[in-house]
Amino acid sequence: MCLINVALTSWSRQLKLSSLVFTLLIAASQAAIASPPTPPSLVKHALELDKQSSATLGVGIRALGLLMNVRGENGVVFQKDFAEQDGTWTQLVALEKNGYATLKVVTGVPDGSSLQTKHVLAKLTIKGEVIAGTFDH
Asked: Does the reported pTM lie above 0.70?
């Protein structure tokens, strides 16, 4: 009888393990289906759009995204250190160079905090507002 219990216990463990492995395989296959890799053709099209934007407007797609975020009467404030680290600063400078935005670097903030920290105030010019307004429709 003891030998039968040992055999049943071993078989039960194997069944539980097999069941767990099967569940993990199903979950992994569903995850793979849910997030397929980006097709090379999509990447190629995105890069082509970026080149076209740079050729026609003087700025790439990422800068155009920032242009849309800077909209508004008061503009947007960026912490300069972070903007330099993540590449935003380069994009903001490109917007200014092409006449889409004005940039003003200030140290500290009006409330007196962050006295040594540099910030960038970015505001759209009329030309920048026209480009950004194109996408309102």
From this structure: no
